[in-house]
Request: fold
Amino acid sequence: MNAPRMVGFVLGGLVAVAALLAPLVLSGSQLTIYVLLGTAAMVTVGVSLLMGYAGQVSLGQAAFYAIGGYTAGLMGVHGLPTVAGLVCAPLVAGLLAALVGIPIMRLRGHYLAFATLAFQLILLSVVGQLEVLGGDIGLQGIPRLGIGSAQLSNTQSYAWLTWAATALVLLIARNVITSRAGRGLRALATSEIAAESSGVPVARYKLAVFALSAAFAGLAGGIYAFFLGYIAPGSFPVLLSFEFVVMAVVGGLGTIWGPVVGAAVITVLVQVLNSLGTEPGMPPYASSVFSYAVYALLLVLTLLFLPRGLLPTATEWVRRALRGREPPAAGDRPAAAVPTGDASGSPAR
Amino acid sequence: MLDVRQVSRSFGGVFAVRDVTLSVADGELRGIIGPNGAGKSTLFNLVSGHLQPDGGTVRYRGARLERRSPHRRARDGIAIVFQGARIFRRMTAVENVMVGAHGHTRCGFVAGALRLPGQHREERAIRDRAWEALEQVGLTAWAHREAESLPLGQQRQLQVARALCGEPRLLLLDEPASGLRAAEREALAALVAELHAGGLTMLLIEHDVGFVTRLADRVTVLDLGEVIAEGTPEEIGRDERVITAYLGDGAGGDRRA
Reply:
């Protein structure tokens, strides 16, 4: 293993351990942020797979977050085992994405972006009309997650659940990307024609990655529903879909860990600005202005100054620093057998 | 191996390819030449599967091919080297080549995500095969470079390696020499000749007449979408209609071998 990868492993491990221990010291409201950060990271990992690796844009990822939330919530409200709800959340989201994807994944670029956005808008208004889903008022009284009589009642346990689910999502994403299927996805991002002629079933692969990213969002939605105990169409605004895209871009598209970085930076920043906006003396619109402004500003600044995102840029610095200490050999590019793409090239779009 | 019969394809009422018939035998290296707009690329796309013919049949190893999707064709042993540099960005050279094995390997998303037992073995087999293909084109030293950082000549060879990784029976080359410098062109010619000696059937579409006539067993000449001559390179060189087509067009006439 070469030095940069080693540093990556150590850092990744430290972050994972720190995140695992964090719930022990965080306060109640901080734990809530922790859970929201984790669920956002799960969704964003899917966005990174879809946009960064496979080159397909989705501006409707919050729709699948909602589908996961409603699946879990509805099953819980009707007295079904909550664990089954949590398992079904990603499955239903993935399945619906596969169905919706059959027509819309034939579209490319802006058209696909608009179609996914439209899907979310349609979904939200349909959910708002359906009495069984609680309409615009939403689904209330979702039970806490539990097996039999044992319940996850405190916030801390949800934090750990989120940690485990995020780890699972990261592991699956990494395994997929470094597999044969992942190579096919990365190939079709550059040239669908060349990929297809190399034997990659392009249409099927695009559908599969869309479904997978939706499943990640669905899992996150399920956790969110059990954690808050209440969801409504208003919990999943279009702005949330944009937020996931911004997180993915800021963290680094086409990387596995970038989404976690992006989700962390944006969630924390938004929370800080939110509390600043609600300080006494601030005008009532301050907090919403702050949040919109932050997404916009971060996106613009990232695209201008760190077009590859925070994580790839930081990795490059580390790599250069390490290389500076060693005698530079010709062609000493790391011979990474398992390229996570975490320091290579620019975003696919 | 490949049997194209009476194939036509028009765009907006204009025939790009009209009643083209050609038959490529096992192990043959067939050259397709013609001036600009002769229909070479259309014919290529009809065989690669990126276009469907309006009429006529394309048979490959005896079976009809017209409606088969490009990825099925790849699985069935048809590999392609595209014009220009159709390499995959943000992937290393060896990864690019490994994509070429897609057609005859199986592990999908589930096997990859869960790291099922067969996955590891297959992955190793793909990697080994890719290394062999890189060795064959002489690019092992570049294996772990970003593919897009390679010079154009090497990118073209990388495409050949990617095609070879799929263990093809029929290799289609679309203007592989275009844009290459003399030395790169020579290296490519040597590689094609070596593959030919190894018994691979190839269809070589090329604007550069000299490149084709010195490599091909037989040459088909297209002009305005129709076959105007077919024969050995020597026969083609003497053909009045070919000379007229080229001189009349003004392209490539002086580059005749």
